TrEMBL record:
Membrane topology summary: Multi-pass membrane protein
Transmembrane helix recorded as keyword: yes
Localization of this protein: Cell membrane
SUPFAM superfamilies associated with the record: Family A G protein-coupled receptor-like (SSF81321)
Native organism: Porites lobata
Pfam families, A to Z: 7tm_1
Family the entry assigns: Belongs to the G-protein coupled receptor 1 family.
Leader sequence segment: none
Record key words, sorted: Cell membrane, G-protein coupled receptor, Glycoprotein, Membrane, Receptor, Transducer, Transmembrane, Transmembrane helix
Protein name: G-protein coupled receptors family 1 profile domain-containing protein
Length: 134
């Protein structure tokens, strides 16, 4: 086997797998963006929702919006190229990996801070407002 056939084989994706991945990721991209925008809109327009815990939820929605608006389209393009053209585009994969690591880390940090906020609210309910103001 020569190097070009090896490279084409590693960059190809079966048609059924590619179409399934494209369909699911396109739905996640559209629905995830819409739902995260709804969270941002709700917190921005309703004054009763403007609390510390909801600001953490807003920042998580913004971090997830980065995933659905930037990372998912990159992934769709990569899967599309591998499925229909059997080619790897290094120019797409490097920025994709960088953005995925950045946005994934941001989402994990936001989830951890939401968990810490909820822990303080449950463990120290009488001191929660004082702690969160500091």
């Amino acid at each position: 086997m020569n190097k070009s056939s090896e490279n084409a084989k590693s960059c190809s994706l079966p048609m059924a797998h590619g179409i399934a991945l494209i369909t699911v990721n396109a739905m996640v991209c559209i629905l995830g963006s819409f739902e995260n925008l709804l969270v941002c809109f709700a917190i921005a327009t309703h004054p009763l929702l403007r609390r510390t815990s909801n600001y953490l939820l807003l920042s998580l929605a913004i971090a997830d919006l980065l995933v659905t608006l930037v990372c998912q389209p990159f992934l769709l393009e990569i899967v599309y190229n591998r499925t229909f053209f059997h080619e790897c585009k290094a120019s797409l994969e490097m920025p994709y990996r960088l953005i995925v690591n950045l946005s994934g880390s941001a989402s994990v940090i936001h989830l951890a801070s939401i968990s810490l906020d909820r822990f303080i609210a449950v463990a120290f309910p009488l001191h929660y407002k004082i702690v969160m103001k500091k």
